[in-house]
Design goal:
heterodimer; A: 151 residues; alpha+beta; Ubiquitin-like (UB roll); DNA polymerase, domain 1; 2 domains; 5-stranded mixed beta sheet; 5 strands; globular; B: 718 residues; Aldehyde Oxidoreductase, domain 4; 3 domains; 29 strands; 25% strand
C-alpha cells in the first residue's frame, strides 16, 4: 500500500491504495463516490468517465498513482446544487432509462460543451461515441446536449 | 395525453425517502443528502394498506403520501408508473407523493418480477384497488368527522371536500382516523372510468432522476455496510469444462485478499478481499487447471447441426392446420428461405452483483434482481434454511434484459458469504458477465411458402435452436390466417447455458418472419402492408384454428404506422421497410427508412406505432419504445457471440460490438388511442425492428438479409 494525496471535486483526500489501483476503485471503495460506475474496466464503455484537469477520461484506465496533482471531477462535483445546464436538460428530456451509464454520459457531454459550446451532430457523435448506453437513450442524450448548449 | 414533463415540488424529499427507506438493510451511509430536504422528513406515517403510508406534511396543512413500488426497477420505469396508478385512484396530488422501492414481500405483493413486459398488465387491477380502497377510507373518515354522508364528499388533489358545507381536510389529517375503519368490501370500492383519469396519461419525470443525475448510490454495486468484504469468482473458461485443481499462493499474496476457496459444487473458486480491486487482482493471480467434461462445442459445428435439423420433421408439430403436404405439392410456386442468428449476451451496463450477509439465524440479500421471489427459494434450498429467514432488498438495476431473471449471482453471493462468514458484495467483472452468461440461444429457421393462383395457400416453418425450448410461436401470426399451416420446432441440447433475453425467441423469430413476408408479398406482386392486412382480415372473418392475437388491433397499428410514416410515398432516396409483430400482449408496427450514404445503407428513421392499451406515463412509454427499437436494430446489425471449443470468443466491449452514439436512427413513436387495460412495453417494440431494417436494406441495396449480425452479410454496413 502507498499513500496518495489526490484532489477530487475541489477537496484534497488522503488515500491508501496499491499504486496499480484504478482511480475508479479509489473513488468508489475508498472515497464513497459511487456516481462513477464500473462497466468494462478497459476504457471501452465510458460509464466511469470523469474529468482530469477538465478533460474527459476513463477512471478505470488510470491508476491512483497517475493522478498526481491533477484536479479530478466526478459527477458528484460537476455543479453545485446540481444546477449544471446539462443536468437541467437531462431532467427536461427525462433521458435515463436504467440510469447506470448516465453519469458517464453527462461527464463526456460536459467536457464537450466546455471545449465546443455549440456542437453539431457530428461533433456530438464523435465526442459521445465512447459512451455506451445499453438502453438506447442516444437520441435523448443528443437532444439534451443540444438543449444545454442553447442555454 | 400531455407530453410536457411535470416536476415535483417534493423531488428532494422523494429521493430522501427513496434512498433512505428503500433499502432493506438500513445502510447507515444512505443518509438524506442536500441541505434543505431534511426538514420535511416526517416519521409518523399511517399505513392504510401495503402500498400506502400517509402523514401530514411539516405545515400540518398538506399531506405526504408514500407509495411503495412493488416490482423491481430495471429501467422500464415501473418505479414511476406503478405508483402513478395508485395515486390516480387515490385522488392524490402527484406532487405530494414520495415513492419507495418495496423489498420482496410476498405477504403483500404479487408477482414481484421484472420480466415478460408484465409488470403493469398484471398489477393494474391490484394497484388501482389499493388506491381506490384507501380513498374510500379517507372519504369515510371525513364523512364521519363531519357527520355527513360519504356520498356527498369528493376526493381530489390529496384532499376530501364536502361541497355544500365548504369543508375540506387533507389526506394527511384524515389518515389516522381512516386507518381505524374497517376496509370496505371489494365490491364497494368504485374505480374511476378512464375518462376521469387526471394523472394517468400525463408525463411524469423519473422518480429517481435526482439520484441518477447526482451519482447517489442507488444501484446494487453501490451498496456498502460496515465490515463488508468484496468477492469475485473464477469459473470454468469454457462450457463443458470443470475444475481439476488450483494453486492460490499468488492470489493469497495479493494485498487485501483475505480468503480463497472452492465453492459452487467444487467447480468455482472464490476470492474474498477488502476491496473490489484486490478481489479482481486476486482472481487474476489464481492458477487453475481445468479438464474437459464431455464434448466442447464450437459455433461452426453448432450451426452445421442446426442446419441439418431444418430438413428433419419434428416428432410432434407445434401447429398443423389443413393439409400442408398437398398445398406444397400442388403449388404454382414455392419460396424457401433460411435465416440464422447467433447467441447474444445480455450485457447490462451494471455487471452482475449481489450483496449477501449470511449469519447463523438469517440471510440478508440485496441487489439487482428481476425475479427475487424465485431467488429466495433457491437460496433457502442451497443453504438449507427456511425461506422465512431470507430477506431480499431490491436496488435499482443498471439494466437486465433478462440476465437478472437467473439467480446465479445471488446464489454465488449467498454461498460465499456463508463460507466467508462475512457480509460480501459479490462482483462479476465485465468478462465474467459476458462469458458466464445465459445467452439468447443461437437459432435457425427455414420458412417455406406455397403460392397458388396468386394466393398464399401454404406455410411451413421449421425452427432449430440450441437449448432454446420451443423456437416457434404457434399461436402468433400467421397462425389463424393461412389454410394450411405447419410449424415445427427442434430444441437441440447444448452445454452452453441459455435464458430469456429481451423478447425471448421472438427477438429473432419476428425479424426472420417479417423479412420472409416481405419476400412473399413481392412474389405475389402485392404491397407488403396490404398483403398482411388481407391475411389479418382472413383471421378476423374466417379464422383457421385458435390463435392469441386480436386481428383488429393488429390492423390498427399497421394503419397507424402507414399514416405516420407516409408509407409508400417516401421522398426520393429514402427506402422504406415494413414490419409488424404482436408479443407480450402488445401490438407494434414499424417502418424503417434507409438512405444510401455512398455505398453504406444507413437507417435514418424508424416510425413505430404501438397499441398497448392505456398509456400510463407517455414520456416513459416513449423511452421504452425507442429503446426497444434501437436495441433491436443494434443487436440485429452488430451483435455476434461465438464459441471455440466451448470458450466464448467475445469477453468485453472491445470484441462485442454494441450500437453507439451516431449509429442509431431517429425514432418516432405513436400510440393507438385506447381505453383498453394497459399492457407492457419493455419488449414489444424490439422484435419487429430487425425485419423493418432488413426490408428497407433490400429496397436500398437489392439484397435480401438472411444472417444476423447484418454486418456479416450486408455490403458497406461495417
Amino acid at each position: 500500500m502507498a499513500k496518495y494525496n489526490i484532489t477530487v471535486n475541489g477537496k484534497k483526500h488522503k488515500v491508501e491504495a496499491d499504486p496499480d489501483t484504478p482511480l475508479l476503485w479509489v473513488l468508489r471503495d475508498n472515497l464513497g463516490l459511487y456516481g462513477t460506475k464500473y462497466g468494462c474496466g478497459i476504457g471501452e464503455c465510458g460509464t466511469c468517465t470523469i474529468h482530469y484537469n477538465g478533460n474527459a477520461m476513463r477512471a478505470c484506465s488510470m491508476t491512483v498513482a497517475d493522478v498526481g496533482e491533477a484536479a479530478i471531477t466526478t459527477i458528484e462535483g460537476l455543479a453545485e446544487n446540481a444546477n449544471h445546464p446539462l443536468l437541467q436538460a437531462w431532467r427536461e428530456h427525462d433521458v435515463p432509462q436504467c440510469g447506470y451509464c448516465q453519469a458517464g454520459q453527462i461527464m463526456s457531454a460536459a467536457a464537450l460543451l466546455a471545449s465546443t459550446p455549440s456542437p453539431d451532430d457530428e461533433e456530438i457523435d464523435a465526442a459521445m461515441y465512447s459512451n455506451i448506453c445499453r438502453c438506447g437513450t442516444y437520441n435523448k442524450i443528443k437532444a439534451a446536449i443540444k438543449s444545454a448548449a442553447s442555454k | 395525453m400531455t407530453t410536457e414533463l411535470q416536476h415535483s415540488r417534493r423531488q428532494f424529499l422523494k429521493i430522501t425517502a427513496t434512498v433512505g427507506g428503500g433499502m432493506m438493510l438500513g445502510f447507515s451511509w444512505l443518509k438524506p443528502y442536500g441541505d434543505t430536504e431534511g426538514a420535511e422528513v416526517v416519521t409518523d406515517f399511517i399505513e392504510l394498506n401495503g402500498y400506502l403510508k400517509i402523514a401530514p406534511d411539516a405545515t400540518g396543512k398538506g399531506s405526504i403520501i408514500t407509495i411503495l413500488s412493488p416490482n423491481p426497477e430495471v429501467g422500464q420505469n415501473v418505479k414511476t408508473s406503478m405508483p402513478m396508478i395508485v395515486a390516480e385512484e387515490l385522488c392524490a396530488n402527484w406532487k405530494d407523493v414520495v415513492v419507495e422501492q418495496a423489498p420482496l414481500n410476498t405477504a403483500v405483493f404479487k408477482r414481484q418480477v421484472a420480466g415478460g413486459s408484465q409488470s403493469i398488465r398484471q398489477t393494474w387491477a391490484t394497484l388501482r384497488n389499493a388506491g381506490a380502497t384507501a380513498k374510500h377510507l379517507l372519504v369515510e373518515a371525513a364523512a364521519q368527522e363531519w357527520g355527513v354522508a360519504a356520498a356527498e364528499c369528493t376526493a381530489a388533489d390529496s384532499f376530501v371536500k364536502h361541497a355544500s358545507s365548504g369543508r375540506s381536510a387533507s389526506f394527511g389529517s384524515l389518515a389516522a382516523a381512516a386507518a381505524k375503519l374497517t376496509p370496505p368490501a371489494p365490491e364497494a370500492v368504485k374505480l374511476k372510468d378512464p375518462s376521469e383519469f387526471t394523472l394517468i396519461g400525463t408525463s411524469q419525470g423519473n422518480v429517481d432522476m435526482e439520484a441518477i443525475l447526482t451519482g447517489k448510490p442507488v444501484f446494487g454495486l453501490d451498496q456498502k455496510v460496515p465490515g463488508m468484504l468484496y468477492s469475485t469468482a473464477l469459473r470454468p473458461p469454457a462450457f463443458g469444462q470443470k475444475l481439476k485443481s488450483f494453486d492460490d499462493k499468488a492470489a493469497r499474496a495479493v494485498k487485501g485478499v483475505v480468503d480463497v476457496f472452492k465453492f459452487g459444487s467444487d467447480n468455482k473458486i472464490a476470492v474474498v478481499a477488502t476491496s473490489t480491486w484486490a478481489a479482481m487482482k486476486g482472481k487474476k493471480a489464481l492458477q487453475a487447471v481445468w479438464e474437459d467434461d464431455g464434448t466442447l462445442e464450437s459455433t461452426a459445428s453448432q450451426y452445421e447441426a442446426m442446419r441439418q435439423k431444418l430438413d428433419v420433421a419434428a416428432e410432434q408439430p407445434k401447429r398443423n392446420d389443413g393439409d400442408v403436404k398437398t398445398a406444397f405439392a400442388t403449388a404454382d410456386k414455392v419460396i424457401e428461405r433460411v435465416y440464422e442468428a447467433p447467441y447474444l449476451p445480455h450485457n447490462p451496463m451494471e455487471p452482475g452483483n449481489f450483496f449477501a450477509n449470511v449469519t447463523t439465524d438469517k440471510v440478508e440479500l440485496s441487489g439487482p434482481a428481476q425475479a427475487p421471489e424465485r431467488f429466495r427459494g433457491e437460496v433457502a434450498k442451497l443453504l438449507g434454511r427456511d425461506e422465512s429467514t431470507v430477506t431480499i432488498g431490491l436496488t435499482r438495476m443498471g439494466g437486465g434484459f433478462g440476465r437478472r431473471l437467473r439467480g446465479d449471482f445471488v446464489l454465488e453471493a449467498a454461498e460465499i458469504s456463508s463460507i466467508a462468514k462475512a457480509p460480501v458484495q459479490h462482483v462479476f467483472t465485465r468478462e465474467d458477465d459476458m462469458t458466464a452468461g445465459i445467452y439468447r440461444p443461437a437459432c435457425m429457421y427455414k420458412f417455406r411458402a406455397a403460392i397458388k393462383g396468386g394466393q398464399l395457400v401454404g406455410y411451413h416453418l421449421t425452427g432449430a435452436g440450441l437449448n432454446a425450448g420451443n423456437v416457434v410461436r404457434e399461436n402468433f401470426f400467421p397462425a389463424g390466417a393461412i389454410e394450411n399451416c405447419l410449424m415445427e420446432s427442434h430444441d437441440m441440447p447444448s452445454k452452453v447455458t441459455t435464458g430469456p433475453w429481451r423478447a425471448p425467441i421472438t427477438n429473432f423469430l419476428a425479424s426472420a418472419e417479417q423479412s420472409f413476408f416481405d419476400e412473399i408479398a413481392e412474389a405475389l406482386g402485392k404491397d407488403p402492408v396490404q398483403f398482411r392486412i388481407e391475411l389479418f382480415e382472413r383471421a378476423k372473418t374466417n379464422p383457421v384454428g385458435k390463435f392469441e392475437y386480436d386481428a383488429e388491433r393488429s390492423i390498427g397499428v399497421m394503419k397507424l404506422a402507414v399514416e405516420k410514416s407516409n408509407w409508400g410515398k417516401a421522398p426520393a432516396g429514402i427506402h422504406q421497410g415494413f414490419s409488424a409483430y404482436f408479443c407480450h400482449n402488445s401490438y407494434v408496427a414499424e417502418v424503417a427508412e434507409v438512405k444510401m450514404e455512398g455505398r453504406k445503407p444507413v437507417v435514418k428513421r424508424v416510425v413505430c406505432a404501438v397499441d398497448c392499451g392505456i398509456v400510463i406515463n407517455p414520456v416513459a412509454a416513449i423511452n421504452q419504445c425507442e429503446g426497444g427499437v434501437i436495441d433491436g436494430i443494434g443487436h440485429a446489425m452488430y451483435g455476434d457471440f461465438t464459441l471455440e471449443k466451448g470458450k466464448p470468443q467475445q469477453d468485453n466491449f472491445d470484441k462485442f460490438r454494441l450500437i453507439r452514439m451516431g449509429e442509431q436512427p431517429a425514432v418516432e413513436v405513436h400510440f393507438v388511442k385506447s381505453n383498453t387495460d394497459p399492457t407492457g412495453l419493455g419488449e414489444p417494440t424490439l422484435p419487429p425492428a430487425g425485419g423493418a431494417v432488413a426490408n428497407a436494406f433490400y429496397k436500398a441495396t437489392g439484397e435480401r438479409v438472411y444472417v444476423q449480425p447484418m454486418v456479416k452479410g450486408v455490403k458497406g454496413l461495417g
